[in-house]
Specification:
The protein is an alpha+beta fold. The chain has 6 helices and 10 strands, in the order αβββββαααβββββαα. The strands form 2 sheets. Strands 1-2-3-4-5 form a 5-stranded antiparallel beta sheet. It has a 5-stranded antiparallel beta sheet with strand order 6-7-8-9-10.
C-alpha cells in the first residue's frame, strides 16, 4: 500500500458534514426502501448497498464520492454536488432525516451549507478502504463456526466501519472510525464486550478497549499490515482469556 498522507486541514469539518449525509440521506433512503440502515465503502467513498425500488426493474444505489452524491438508477448514473442536506435528499428522492431506529449524532439542519472539501472526502474514503481490508483479513482468519462474525457494516449513527466476532467471553467490536468528538482524527479500535483485564494494550480512555491512531498507522512501514496486526493482537489477547 502507498504511504498514508497527512490529512487535509479541512478533514474534521468534512467528516462532520459527511456524517450528516450518511445519517440523514443515505441511511434514510436505504431504510425507506428495505428497513435497514447499514452502509458500506463504495469506490473512493461510501454509500448504501444497492436496494430495490418499487416499480423499477433495476436496483438503485446511492453513494458519496469526493464532494458529490451519486445516484445509480437503472442504467443511468446521475451526479449532484453536495451543498445542503435538503438538496442531497431531494436528489436521493427521500425525505431527509435519520431513521427512527437510532438517535442521530448530527443535526438535521436542512439548509446549512455542507463543509465538504473534495480532498478530505477522498481521504475519508481511503481510510474506510484500509479498515475494510484489515477487517476482511481478520474475519478470514477466525473459526467462523466458533466466533460467528457479524457483517462488516458502516454504521451511520456512529460513522464507523466495524464487525463483531469472538467466542463467548471473548467477543468484541473491531473497527475503524474517521474520528469523533473525543478523537477528532481517524483511529482503529478493539472494543471488548466484557472487561478485558489489565493490559497496556487496552489503552483507550474514552471507551473500554484499545485504540491505534491515524498517525501511528501513517508512520508505520506498512500501514495495512499494521492495521491487520493491531486487530490480530486484540483478538489474540481476548482469545487467550478463555482458552
Amino acid at each position: 500500500m502507498d504511504p498514508m498522507e497527512p490529512l487535509p486541514e479541512e478533514f474534521v469539518e468534512t467528516r462532520r458534514s459527511l456524517h450528516a449525509v450518511a445519517e440523514h440521506v443515505l441511511a434514510a433512503a436505504r431504510y425507506a426502501a428495505v428497513g435497514r440502515i447499514g452502509l458500506e465503502p463504495v469506490g473512493r467513498g461510501f454509500g448504501a448497498p444497492p436496494f430495490p425500488e418499487p416499480r423499477r426493474e433495476a436496483d438503485r444505489q446511492l453513494f458519496v464520492e469526493s464532494d458529490l452524491i451519486v445516484r445509480v438508477d437503472g442504467g443511468a448514473t446521475l451526479v449532484e454536488p453536495l451543498t445542503t442536506l435538503r438538496r442531497a435528499a431531494e436528489f436521493a428522492q427521500v425525505d431527509a432525516g435519520a431513521p427512527p431506529v437510532y438517535e442521530a449524532s448530527t443535526a438535521l439542519d436542512l439548509d446549512r451549507e455542507l463543509a465538504i472539501d473534495a480532498s478530505s472526502s477522498v481521504a475519508l474514503g481511503s481510510w474506510f478502504r484500509l479498515v475494510a481490508g484489515a477487517l476482511d483479513d481478520l474475519v478470514a482468519s477466525v473459526d467462523a463456526e466458533r466466533e460467528t462474525p457479524g457483517s462488516c457494516t458502516l454504521w451511520p449513527e456512529h460513522f464507523d466501519l466495524a464487525v463483531d466476532l469472538g467466542a463467548p467471553g471473548a467477543r468484541a467490536n473491531y473497527g475503524g472510525s474517521p474520528g469523533d468528538d473525543a478523537h477528532p482524527l481517524p483511529y482503529l479500535y478493539v472494543g471488548p464486550w466484557d472487561d478485558p483485564g489489565a493490559d497496556e494494550f487496552w489503552n483507550a480512555t474514552s471507551f473500554r478497549g484499545a485504540l491505534l491512531s491515524y498517525d501511528e498507522l501513517r508512520f508505520a512501514d506498512d500501514p495495512a499490515a499494521a492495521a491487520r496486526a493491531f486487530f490480530a493482537s486484540g483478538h489474540a489477547r481476548l482469545s487467550e482469556q478463555i482458552d
